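ligand=zinc ion
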Amino acid sequence: MYAVLTDDPDLARAGIGDRTYYFVEYVDGTTNEPLEGTVASVACWGDTAAVEADPERAAVSADGTRATPDSEGHHWGTVCPTDPDYRADLLERLEDLEGDVRLTTLGFPGESFCHCDRCDRQFAESEHDDRTAWRSAVVTEFVADAAMRVDGELTATLYPDPYPGHLEERAGLDVQALAEHVDGFLVPLCSPGYETTYWLESLARGFTTELEGLEVDLSIQLSAAEIEPERLAEITRKLEEYADEIVYGTYPDDAEVVQQVLNRVRGKDTPKMSA
Ligand SMILES: [Zn+2]
């Protein structure tokens, strides 16, 4: 299967792929009206606007660093995943959506998050001795609650690190536990132009191993920017061995490239001979 991911409503309606992911809530806090028939892409705790409006809401690390866009290694603001009001509002918004949903910015924004007073207290009062396990339980519980409210398929975005244990340590994402509640995982492997490609296969293969035996689909997201269609088609053919779906992050200017890639991989167009 091939899909397009966009925040452009016209492109979303153009029907280029088998399905379209459409940004409904973005990490900067902006929102779009959902579009019928598309997969609504919803940022969970990534919400710069919420964090700017109330900096106390940002997740905080053991050394007191807040997860805001101006902190090193953070490109957007991240609300603490145990913020009860934020969680309730987010679940309510997910319930209002119709059809398929993809969750992004799922989990804690780094290994040393979150050490706010509420998280310290909730961990101390929990049945867990290990903070990593507690964090994973927080995220899994949220995804389980989300799954009960989403009426279509639910896809969770994973950080592209399939090394065993890394996703739990980094974000509190326990893939085995999450797999009970989601239909699929989406892994972004984006790099405009793809000057090198060896890492794509390594990571895709790693996730195939990680998801072995689980009843979930694997979607891989690629960038369609600054690349020739034949080269992106070549990358697609290689990654299709590992993934159930290839999703192209597409700006309106790159729509033609994606269309040409799909013509090639679907066999509607013969590849150009290259020297
Ligand atoms: Zn916290």
